[in-house]
Amino acid sequence: MARSPNKHGRDQAQGFLNNLQDWELSLKDNKDKKMKHQQYGPMSDFSSQVDANSEKEQGNEYFKQKKFNEAIDCYSRSIALSPNAVAFANRAMAFLKIKRYREAEVDCTEALNLDDRYIKAYSRRATARKQLGMIKEAKEDAEFALRLEPESQELKKQYADIKSLLEKEIIERATGAMQSTAEELLKTAGLEKKTNTEMKMKTTQGEKTNEDTVRPVSGSKEISGKKLIESVQPEEKKNEVSKKVTPKSDSYEKEAKSSDINGSQPSGSGNQVSRKLELKSSVLELAAHAASLAMAEVSKNIQPPKSAYEFENSWRSFSGDRALQTQLLKVTTPSSLPQIFKNALTSPVLFDIIKCVASFFSEDTDLAVKYIENLTKVPRFNMIVMCLTSTEKNELLKIWEDVFCSKATPMEYAEVLDKLRSRYCLKQ
Fold it and tell me: DSSP string spanning 115-132?
């Protein structure tokens, strides 16, 4: 007959079963935690994300109700919990509504640092910069936004308005600069004093004319003056006075103007023309000198771009000046090109860069080859090359054969470039 287990044995068995159950539960909990982590990340991150979204949504509700300060507070809390481009751009819009343009401009920049293709951030920053008087920068933002969404009527209108404002500002500045330059040239040529003398002479002549005779002007005044003179002058002088008073050709007016300007007889008109030509030449020389100084200053201040937006704006602003475009490439590290352009490189810009690289290939072959090589590492490069036109491909092929793979190219570079030829879809 078997003996029933004693109390001590039963306690041991129960303890073993409890331990086994705890172990199974522990395994299950760990498995559940692992699955949740894979799905949502750490629970604290998941919670923060939920809170950030709810704050952003609440901010949107306040914005619809035109409670812009409350909306700003909500967006600020959302950004504190989980920074993202949308929250920054939304807060920027709220700042615009209460005319805090500087804060709006900063928030849009933060949004673009997180997403450099965010159209609304470019458009809103353009609005902020316009209000801050940064018209040139505003135009660049509006232009880039329109390039990203060319069919948008709203963006077209914004760009047109800012462009018109910039053109008006440029004309005003140019007019002021020209007036200042002209005054300086007149002062240098000693024409200011002469102008004052001329004014005195005109006044004196006018007074004399009022005292002695009637000065002809035009139409009925001329005729009445003639009659008055004829009634006063002796007979023998009538013909002479008539000739002076009643000219019908334009030559009299030209002579009168010449006489007024020079303070003497029309024979001084040659000197006046000569002086005008000298002034024009001086103005052109000053303009050329100022342009060269401006270009030199611009070249010194070129900074490496941090995004495709910055690169394209600088590149387009230097359009037509290979020296400045070359300088932009030289301050940009070739290995940074994939990070700068990301998905934003276009086939026209690629084509233009290669042409610029060809212009300094012989003087800095190493940098040129690094550029050609690193451009192929930009995302979607194969798609970009496919978008090149047949004309552009033919021109690139010619550049490859005449410049990159010419007999003057060192062998180590020629081999690399020959391999890269296929990446640019250029048939030998």
Answer: -TT-HHHHHHHHHHHHHT
How many Cα atoms sit within 13 Å of 287 on the Cβ side?
A: 10
Which DSSP state fits 99? Answer: T
Q: At what angle do helices 365-375 and 322-330 cross, to 10 degrees?
A: 80
> DSSP class of residue 214?
P
Q: How confident is the model over 221-243, as pLDDT tens digits?
A: 444 444 434 444 444 444 444 44
pTM of the predicted protein model: 0.46
The rounded distance, in Å, linking the Cα atoms of 428 and 409 is 17
Residue type, 142: A
Check if the beta carbon of residue 131 is closer than 8 Å to that of residue 147: no
Instruction: Report residue 133 as tokens.
Output: 């008087």
**Residue 308 near residue 341, CB atoms below 8 Å:** yes
Reported as a single tens digit per residue, the pLDDT across 244-297 is 444 444 443 444 444 444 444 444 555 665 665 566 566 666 655 555 555 555
Enter the tokens of residue 357. Answer: 């690289």
Q: How far is CA 345 from CA 207, 274, 334, 352, in A?
A: 74, 54, 14, 12
> Cα separation of 374 and 404, whole Å?
16
Question: In this structure, how many other beta carbons lie within 10 angstroms of the beta carbon of residue 168?
Answer: 11
Q: Name the residue with tokens 């894979």.
A: 38
- Calculate helix-pair angle for 119-131, 85-97, nearest 10 degrees: 30
First-residue to last-residue Cα distance in the chain: 100
Burial of 54 (C-beta count, 10 Å sphere; 0-12/13-18/19+): middle
Hunting for tokens 């070359």 — which residue is that?
326
DSSP type of residue 303: -
Tokens of 154: 């709203």
- Distance CA(72)–CA(191), nearest Å, equals 61
